[in-house]
Design brief:
The protein is mainly beta. The protein has one domain: Trefoil (Acidic Fibroblast Growth Factor, subunit A), CATH 2.80.10. It is built from two helices and 13 strands; from the N terminus they run H-E-E-E-E-E-E-E-H-E-E-E-E-E-E. A six-stranded antiparallel sheet has the order 9-8-5-4-1-13. The chain has a three-stranded antiparallel sheet with strand order 2-3-11, with no helix packed on it. The longest helix has 11 residues. The radius of gyration is 15 Å and the shape is globular. The two termini are 28 Å apart. The relative contact order is 0.21. It is found in: Secreted.
Length: 178
């Protein structure tokens, strides 16, 4: 019998419960993430892209996730970065004035231990169904982490109502015992 899949809400509750005490946390949790069109995250040429799995794709980029305990936990504020923990997702204004997604050289654990709100590095987990979630920028409300409808394009930010995809699945990857 296959184990019952956990809901997005159950996973978020566990994450926030596990990371409530900054003194005992050493590592973020790792997640495999993909959009509702089955495009997974890959890191290539300093870009986070979303594409389908194939024999020619690089390894799936797991995302490091940890709670931001300096913002209202009812909105599920999280930091997200690459699993090497030295690159973190950040939202900032582009030269055109619209928000854009950037990968910042920044240790996710330093963000977690900081006492500032760090909204530019924070996404609110917005539960959309039992199995899907959207990630809204805390710095730019109404802007969401998104993928293109076309494969192998950069992950970015968008407002609701366009053609970009903002619904994601994720599964926690259990760390091997140390």
């Amino acid at each position: 019998m296959e184990p019952q899949k956990r809901t997005v809400e159950e996973e978020l509750k566990d994450l926030f419960h596990a990371f409530k005490d900054k003194e005992v946390v050493n590592e973020p949790w790792n997640y495999k993430m993909w959009d509702i069109e089955q495009k997974y995250f890959f890191f290539e040429n300093d870009n986070l892209i979303a594409g389908p799995l194939s024999s020619r794709t690089p390894p799936v980029q797991l995302m490091a996730v940890i709670s931001n305990n300096n913002l209202n936990s009812l909105k599920w504020p999280i930091f997200m970065g690459l699993t090497d923990k030295t690159k973190t997702l950040k939202c900032l204004k582009s030269t055109t004035g619209d928000p854009q997604l950037q990968i910042e050289e920044c240790n996710i654990m330093d963000l977690y231990k900081d006492t500032k709100e760090l909204r530019e590095f924070t996404f609110h987990g917005v539960i959309q169904s039992k199995t899907t979630c959207s990630f809204e920028s805390a710095e730019f409300p109404g802007w969401f982490l998104s993928t293109s409808i076309h494969p192998n394009m950069p992950v970015g930010l968008c407002k609701l109502g366009g053609t970009r995809i903002i619904l994601f699945h994720s599964v926690k990857i259990r760390s091997p015992p140390k």
